[in-house]
Amino acid sequence: MEHGSVINYLKTHGHANVDLLVNFFVTIYDLPFVFNTGVKLYEIAQGLEYLHSHAIVHGDLKGANILVKESGSACLADFGLSIYSDASAKTGSTSRGGSLYWMAPELLDPDHFGFQFGRTVATDVYAFGCVCFEDNLRFGAERAEQPPGPPAMSDTLWQHVTEFWAQRPTARPSTQSLVQKMTWPNMGWQLSQKAFKSSPIQSAPFAPFITARNPSSSLLQVPLDSGAQSASSTLSVSSVPSPTTSSSMRSVNSIDLPVGTEATPLVNSEDKFEFNILDPQLGGIADTVKHFSHPHNATAHREDMRLLPHVFLGRDALVQKIAFLLAAQRTSRVCITGVGSMGKTSVAVTVTESSIIRNIFPKEYIFWVPCITAKSSDLLRRILYTQLRITAETYDSLDPLIAELDESQQPRLLLLDNFETPWLSGPDPLEVGHILRRLAALRHIALLVTMTSGVTPEGIEWEHVPLPALEPAAARAVFKNTYRSAAGGLELTGDETQLDNVLESIGHIPLAITLMATCGGHLGASPDDLLVDWRKAGTAMLAVGGKGRLSMNDTIGLSMERGVSSDPNALRLLAILSMLPAGTTGENLLKWWAPTTWRASTHTAVQILRTAALIELEGDGHLPTSRIFVRPTIQSYMSHQDRIPAEVRNQVHDACYAFILRHKSIPDDHLFKSDMEAIASEEINIQGLLTDIPVNAPRPNALDALIGFSLYQSWTKPSTVVASHALTVAYAALSNPHVSVHDVAARRVTARRVAAAHAALAESLLNLDRYDEARAHFEEAAARFKDLPGGADLHSAGEASMQLLETWMYQHTRSSSELEPLAQEVQAHLSHDETDKYHVARGLLGFGDFLWWSSRPDEALETLSIAKAVFEHLGCPTSTAHCLYRMARTYADQGRTTEALSTIKDALKNADRSGEVMWMWMTRDIMIRLLVVLESYEEASTVFPRSLSLAQAAGSPLAIAQGLELLAYNCAAMMDLPGARVAYQGAQIQFAKIKSTRFAQDDVARCSENLEMLKSMTEMNKDNFFKLRRPDPMY
């Protein structure tokens, strides 16, 4: 390691001359002014963070072990001697020696916390709190409570100290967070500008530390010794705005991290980073640009990381071992294996909360990927996109996700929980393995996988961590704590030997302990009662050769037998919920999934299942407003050996189809917005159930549900997977020999479904810019609608042809004279029934679009105005917004900008009423462009946040990039030079994601050219502004 002078000195000179160190250092006790500035706390925190990033625990942090050089730089001491003599210390000291006043509670009384004695990152954080307090603290060892804040300590610092002193180790902040809390802006410490302008290569008492990562990445911050710099270090300097004024600048330097000998951090030593500090007035713009690494408004329900288990004991050493593996790049592919119910998820979640992990991976870059719902590779991709917060137009390909992760190089930790579902139970394990290998190929991505099998995807160098049962002492503590909670605070009574016998009978398995203790607590049973009862019920279930132990399946079965089997509604409800891996809301459960059960009975059944610890509730605790989940292990148990009756399976599938058809609406329906929200709340469950539909024997309404859900996806997140399956099922039904050739009505319904499936698939293909494929399916759909048994459906044929016309116009491969016959046919089909005002207006809209595209503005305005009046009268917001949007574009083309702005504002109101994201974004995009043309820059700036948010919700990197470029241009027009720079940088990054397209290449070049000009400018004025290239096209 290259840090500080103590360790370097020891490596160079050994121990023989340790006493000479006193010539160069004094302790903080010799410098009483140290804590008056507060700067040394920041330096100490940075030094501690550096140690932890290299997998080293100090173990004896206190004031006497903090040395201050004559230049004023603080250095950590004493740890070097112990580490040098005992290499095992890097994973935690095992010596029980130490300084009592600075020791964390779990070191003073490890048995009370259920821990093995061992110093950790968390104990160092606790000791740091003591160091903060040390200058004002005089208390005896016998004092049990924490002291109140001293008068000399600021309220902010005292608040941080109390966080460092959290009783539970996992509740203490990471050292990376600790450094941030000690920075001078957060603490209110006043430092001179001179201090910040000093080069760290010089002896600068207030600036001995440099930052090796951008603060947004929250990674390693490394002190640079005030002496000679390592020859291997590369120094780069960038000037950034001061946090106090927009004009003053300060130098902040960056270095490379030399690779340590103890572990290779996930940060590559070859990388170079710069530290940019934005002026406070740039906060809004910087946050807007940064936002695009955050979650988009995905339609799928994004799950939060599971909470830490209420009772978690006996796994601390294992947690620390896994954390250290993940901290080193070469061992950062970790698979926790073990039978179901062993506590793999609890261990994995606790690992993500450890200080070691949080020191390397900021919280926003630790991702929970629940694979229990991923029954196929398609669902796994969708979950990855949603959970990793990646914006993309579709989830059908992994390429945009991999490109985004590869672009940022930001270390991320992915926790893929219950990976056995897609890997071992899915229909396409080869594709699942390919997905994981592509993630593992990114060196800055750490993978933490939990699964029941040790057979992992090939091509990845795994660190396998088998999870054993709990040690007897920890198992006993878990049982007692769980029992106490279930019994309302009453303690378990009885012979400890009997409790040990109970625990032995269930193999010390965590979930089995939870189930048994919960049941016993609610019943107030003693260990003797539990043992007798379980032996009586479980004798016949004991595994042969199992040494008298029950298997996990046996334990679950016994738990259900005791608390659930007596209530048929509870058993039925458990079966229903087990088919909904993403959980469901209480309202949907009562209304859709379990409608045959009386509401009072459902409430009772839920309470029984909660008492048996078989389900979990998220929310306010009230059934209608909470989300209900079945524990993954219980889901797995229920899915085998026909434990879910066929009758329940059929009921759930039928409920799924009915739910989709009830919420099947088109964008002009007044319920469209609420229907989309309803389907989104159950999207993962629905897709899982729909993929189970057999091709040759679908249940009634199954095909209609497939088509309806395909259309929903085309409006939200286009995908061809379900739509293609719908088309396959539709053709199978068409070929059904049981449908009589003489039954015209039945043949018409079947043939119409084939046409509708073609149209639904074409919608997604069009939205994915796959124009040739979309055209083929629109043509097939239109032809089939016109050739239905019993007569043509011209309205549906007209809608398909209207979309076909739109596809041709997007492609620009045919002239207006070639497309005019198709446009006339669209209008004729849609208007064939003059009494149907809606479809007559749709025909006018289709033809008006064509007139606008053909550059016939006067005819377009006249046609669209007539259509708009009809739609407004009928209350059709989407089509009204469509008409107004085209009219605004036409006015703009004619130079009638003021009229265009007024029209687009009306379009925006209707788009918002419709709830269709694409129109909500498109109307705002044109509105901004018109405002910029009219030089109404202030008003334009108020529209950007919502516009960019909608572009992200639409999943369009191109729309995001164009929006950021507009934002940059608008900032420049407002003479905001720093804001323009930040926004152009963001636009450049987004355009680079789609650089393969011709338009994006032009856009990247334009952004780069403008950015280079901005970098050379010292101020923005009108002359400089007019040098910039405008976004193209403006509208």
UniProtKB/TrEMBL annotation:
<dbReference type="GO" id="GO:0005524">
    <property type="term" value="F:ATP binding"/>
</dbReference>
<dbReference type="InterPro" id="IPR019734">
    <property type="entry name" value="TPR_rpt"/>
</dbReference>
<dbReference type="InterPro" id="IPR000719">
    <property type="entry name" value="Prot_kinase_dom"/>
</dbReference>
<protein>
    <recommendedName>
        <fullName>Protein kinase domain-containing protein</fullName>
    </recommendedName>
</protein>
<keyword id="KW-0067">ATP-binding</keyword>
<keyword id="KW-0723">Serine/threonine-protein kinase</keyword>
<dbReference type="InterPro" id="IPR027417">
    <property type="entry name" value="P-loop_NTPase"/>
</dbReference>
<keyword id="KW-0808">Transferase</keyword>
<comment type="similarity">
    <text>Belongs to the protein kinase superfamily. STE Ser/Thr protein kinase family. MAP kinase kinase kinase subfamily.</text>
</comment>
<feature type="domain" description="Protein kinase">
    <location>
        <begin position="1"/>
        <end position="185"/>
    </location>
</feature>
<dbReference type="GO" id="GO:0004674">
    <property type="term" value="F:protein serine/threonine kinase activity"/>
</dbReference>
<dbReference type="Pfam" id="PF07714">
    <property type="entry name" value="PK_Tyr_Ser-Thr"/>
</dbReference>
<dbReference type="InterPro" id="IPR001245">
    <property type="entry name" value="Ser-Thr/Tyr_kinase_cat_dom"/>
</dbReference>
<dbReference type="InterPro" id="IPR011990">
    <property type="entry name" value="TPR-like_helical_dom_sf"/>
</dbReference>
<comment type="similarity">
    <text>Belongs to the protein kinase superfamily. TKL Ser/Thr protein kinase family. ROCO subfamily.</text>
</comment>
<dbReference type="InterPro" id="IPR008271">
    <property type="entry name" value="Ser/Thr_kinase_AS"/>
</dbReference>
<keyword id="KW-0418">Kinase</keyword>
<feature type="region of interest" description="Disordered">
    <location>
        <begin position="231"/>
        <end position="253"/>
    </location>
</feature>
<dbReference type="InterPro" id="IPR011009">
    <property type="entry name" value="Kinase-like_dom_sf"/>
</dbReference>
<keyword id="KW-0547">Nucleotide-binding</keyword>
